[in-house]
Amino acid sequence: MSKTLYRGGFIALALSALLWTSGCVVMDTPEKVEQVQETNDPFEPMNRYFFDVNIFLDEFVLKPASAWYQAALPQPAQDGGRRFLANLRLPWTAINDFFQGNMPRAGEALARFAVNTTVGVAGIFDVATGWGLPQHDEDLGQTLAVMGIPDGPYLVLPIFGPSNPRDALGMAGDIYLDPVNVLATNKQENIHFPPYNHDRLTWVPTARGFGEAVDSRARNGQAIDDLKKQSMDFYATVRSIYRQRRDAEIHNRGEPESTYPQPRLTETPDGKHADVPAAAPTQAAVPAETPNASNASPN
Amino acid sequence: MMLSRVAAIAASLVLCAAGTAVAADNGSAALVVAPLQLAQARAASVQVPEASRFVSNLADEAIASLSKKELSVPERITQFRSLLDEGFDIPQIARFVLGRYWRTATPEERAEYTKLFEEFIIQTYAQRFGDYGGESLKIGDGSRNGDDDIIVASQILRPNGPPVKVDWKLRPEQSSFKIVDVVVEGVSMAVTQRDDFSATIQSHGGKIEGLIAVLRDKVKGGTETASK
Prior knowledge:
The structure holds two protein chains of two kinds. By secondary structure, chain A is an all-alpha fold. Chain A contains twelve helices and two strands; from the N terminus they run H-H-H-H-H-H-H-E-E-H-H-H-H-H. In chain A, strands 1-2 form a two-stranded antiparallel ribbon. Chain A is globular. In chain A, about 35% of the residues are buried. Chain B has helices at about 1-10, 35-65, 75-85, 90-100, 100-105, 105-125, 190-205, 210-225; strands at about 135-145, 150-155, 165-175, 175-185, 185-190. Chain B has a five-stranded antiparallel sheet with strand order 1-2-3-4-5. In chain B, helix 6 packs parallel to helix 8 (about 210-225). The N and C termini of chain B lie far apart (about 35 Å). At the A-B interface, helix 2, helix 3, helix 4, helix 10 and helix 11 of A face helix 1, helix 4, strand 1, strand 2 and strand 3 of B.
């Protein structure tokens, strides 16, 4: 049995190595070298392939699912569903805040979870925002970034979409270490509260992920379709948006002000990779009055 | 899941006024530097709240004139064009969006590109206002960003879903302002557009003519559907 596993593992490794090497940009001209340096996307051919795969999946799986979701549930129910899912993210957010050294926010996330789960009935109603505890999200990828780990080359993962080595690792951690997932996928017994006991609910992480994807697509589908139509190179547009958005998330830019004072990040762990500093070399050639991308917090 | 990230930003494009007017910086390269600097410093402190008012007025104008359902497409485009020229500095934005390729472009290419860029922006965004569905813009505070730029924070309040944060980057222009960039949930529209154009140029072997040809097609295709 272990021999089969070894053989299978070896084949998988060989196939992925083949895919990675054939999916790389062949840097045979100085322009190509410059291009890869600028965009940090040495796996662009492979990424574009998976990008197309994801678009296909979106068209044939996610879009119909979200259309059904919008047709079957009235708006209040959809909003309740979104809030329920957002609530489930809070324990893991708190843990990540803790590892980022952001204790006030960790406490806030936990408090919000406690309030909305009880008073807000499993998170379906958002009571906590009115109590000064707004929603915010942290994940392992952001925590790794705060710890100073650079993001690495752009990767498009099948199904999961735009990412990079650090965030992909973070995503795996998110799925396997999230307390809600851990509790659900392990058999619970001998707890003093009998309704709490259950068998292994292995479908929970997948259900959560798919649910969030459907909800998100339902709310933003029109805008995404517009973006697709308007872009000349949709792949490059998504790559740009993903990186800028990720940068903003890591620095907690524009998040609602916490009631409690909190430390603010000042350095950019992978700053030389964010689009803003990348503008610097091009702007050396262009006079100073061109607009810079904003990277300042609105506060 | 792929789209959940894109989604958060893209949603605001519904109301995003695309015109990016860059108020050219007060170019009076003064003979007397010190009083000018003093005057500018004094002006700077006054400018920030005025910048917020500027955005607020522009947004009101946009919603008032563009969201009427009975507006025909050419009318909407004309209205949008005038708002764009009023509030945004297209040449400056076009130049930024072309990035390093501006340097190597010929004057003819630059002129044609700038013209096509404006048409592209108008076509892309003018129709969005027709989809206006009761969103409102809540303008927040302005703040200084560097020597010249002012950032005005705002939120698009939607009936379905959480508010969308939009920052407006402005530069003073004579007695008013012009918008240089719009940053939606941390994503700069100018930077995103630049990356899109840059990839397009690269896929045409680094030739700007390739981008111009694609823009020409898009603009022409848009005008055809618009006049139907």
